[in-house]
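Good day; I would like, with your permission, to put a structural problem before you. I would ask you to consider whether the tokens describe a fold that such a sequence might reasonably adopt. The full record is reproduced below for your convenience:
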Amino acid sequence: MIEIAAQKRKAKFAGEIGLFGVDQIADEEIKKLPDDMVWAEITVPRNLKQIRYLWAIASKLADGGLYDSKEDAMDDLRIRARFARFGVEDGRTVIVPRSLSRQRGDVLSRLINRIIFVVCSDLLPHIKEKDLRAEIEEMVT
């Protein structure tokens, strides 16, 4: 499944019609789609900017080779930040990352802070928090 931020806008180029990715990450995800028809579910989360910020962190770590995909990165980061719940699968107890889409802004702000801390202390200890935040801010603006 592909999750991206898209924007409905007038075409910038002749022949453009539709929804467009709002940044390079979203554009790359759209390019992965087949030329066939696809099924899309469109929602407008309350905290789109914060969700995009979190996905930018996950994409950065996946692009850097720490994870196989941005989805794997996001799942692991949410679990490391203790943003998960216990579930039962095939009779075993498993840890399941919680959904981002229905969270309040203050909850997502705390999650962003915890994930930044986890990345800078456990995954990439040579990177300072302020440098990581600046790089991610640049990606989402």
User: Anything to note?
Assistant: Residues 87 and 93 are 6 Å apart (CA to CA). The beta strands are 6-8, 19-21, 84-89, 92-97.
